[in-house]
């Protein structure tokens, strides 16, 4: 069971990791705005979905009016390049300059409408006709050039029968399944970026999680300052949500600096075993190892993400309020027993 001191240390560490995660998330969002990884993963997911490594069928889908209205520019399959780190289908990624204008999200109903229209009327060369019956759609699907797409359409028609809405629902579920896989690609990349940014921030700002924890254990005033700042974090984060990334970074740095945590490269904040004018060669090797381990702990904490630490900090604060005695209970005098009848 947590005692008061241990719980306050946990609150201080959760507050530190939450603030670090928010700072690194803002940096990660800025990088995402440049790299357009969501659009890249969506395009790659569509090619995997359609079994279209060369991007020809995917190009027809992107050029359909229902999809084309979601972005500006053109889809050019000639700009695909193969990544040596990702073998197999879907390893080809759209180059950065070619994916900047591609959409980051396609609604499932838009995809299904565009796909069925392509199957029914081709790439736009045929004149549009009335909506096809399931039997007519089955006949058109059987004539499609893609064996993979033919099989998927026949599966959806077999499952949906004569109900067009059921056919569309099965196709939407097929689309959503692959988009969940694409979301997994993006999530893993985001975690890797957060770890890299978190490690860089830990080194540049000297955020040694182990050293901070030891100082919190030894310094009651520091614990109280961290708990006081953590109690205001929910209101502070609500105000930061609508700000620009650079404004959020400045506000978060100020918020972290008001506590006075032992971070940074000031004397005594790092490797207290060093002499005031000593160098790294005079440091204890074990101290250097613990410093690197503290940086890694900070980076792994950032990789867990701000929502994790926000939720955990809220749980810690709720637990602390339940363990802390109320002023009335602490100061109220004991009541005398009632007189016997």
Q: How would you explain this protein's 3D organization?
A:
Keywords: Membrane, Transmembrane, Transmembrane helix. The two termini are 44 Å apart. The mean pLDDT is 84. This protein folds into 2 domains: 166 residues, no CATH class; 146 residues, no CATH class. It has 341 residues and is mainly alpha-helical. It is built from 16 helices and 2 strands. The longest helix is centred in the middle third of the chain and has 41 residues.
Which shape, going by the Cα principal axes? elongated
Q: Quickly count the domains.
A: 2
Discrete helix count: 16
Rg value: 29 Å
Helix content: 55-70%
Q: What share of residues are in beta strands?
A: under 5%
Following the backbone from N to C, one meets helices and strands in this order, namely: HHHHEEHHHHHHHHHHHH
Major β-sheet strand ordering: 1-2
Average pLDDT = 84
Structure class: mainly alpha
Number of strands: 2
Characterize the main sheet: 2 strands, antiparallel
Spatial separation of the terminal alpha carbons: 44 Å
């Amino acid at each position: 069971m947590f005692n008061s001191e241990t719980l306050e240390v946990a609150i201080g560490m959760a507050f530190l990791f939450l603030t670090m995660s928010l700072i690194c998330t803002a940096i990660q969002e800025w990088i995402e705005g440049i790299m357009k990884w969501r659009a890249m993963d969506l395009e790659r997911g569509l090619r995997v979905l359609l079994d279209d490594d060369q991007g020809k069928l995917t190009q027809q889908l992107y050029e359909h009016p229902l999809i084309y209205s979601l972005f500006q520019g053109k889809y050019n399959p000639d700009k695909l390049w193969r990544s040596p780190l990702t073998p197999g289908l879907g390893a080809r990624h759209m180059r950065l300059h070619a994916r900047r204008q591609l959409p980051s999200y396609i609604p499932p109903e838009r995809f299904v409408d565009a796909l069925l229209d392509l199957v029914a009327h081709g790439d736009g060369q045929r004149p549009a006709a009335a909506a096809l019956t399931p039997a007519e759609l089955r006949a058109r699907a059987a004539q499609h050039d893609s064996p993979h797409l033919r099989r998927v359409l026949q599966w959806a028609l077999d499952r949906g029968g004569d109900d067009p809405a059921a056919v569309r629902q099965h196709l939407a579920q097929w689309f959503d399944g692959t988009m969940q896989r694409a979301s997994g690609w993006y999530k893993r990349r985001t975690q890797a970026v957060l770890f890299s940014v978190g490690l860089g921030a830990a080194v540049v700002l000297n955020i040694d999680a182990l050293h901070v924890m030891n100082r919190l254990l030894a310094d009651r005033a520091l614990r109280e300052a961290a708990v006081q700042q953590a109690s205001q974090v929910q209101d502070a984060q609500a105000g930061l949500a609508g700000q620009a990334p650079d404004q959020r970074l400045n506000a978060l740095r100020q918020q972290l600096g008001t506590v006075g945590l032992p971070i940074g490269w000031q004397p005594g904040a790092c490797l207290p075993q060093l002499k005031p004018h000593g160098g790294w060669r005079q440091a204890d090797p074990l101290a250097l190892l613990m410093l690197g381990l503290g940086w890694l702990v900070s980076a792994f904490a950032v990789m867990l993400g701000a929502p994790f630490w926000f939720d955990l900090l809220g749980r810690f604060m709720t637990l602390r309020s339940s363990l802390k005695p109320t002023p009335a209970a602490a100061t109220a005098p004991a009541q005398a027993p009632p007189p016997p009848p």
